[in-house]
Write a structure and sequence with these properties.
Length: 57
Amino acid sequence: MGLNELLFHHQVALIQYAADNKSSRDNGTSFDVVRHYEARIARLRHEIGAAAYPRWP
């Protein structure tokens, strides 16, 4: 899975987590999905040498 696709899935997981938290249906699993994608993004960024945040001039 490429970086853009991981970022997309992470964003969707964050939205789902917020919805679950708002409706008090969250049992912790949606946050686990958010952390899963966060870890995969960090690992892939490290592997390809991409910065987490660009250094804009």
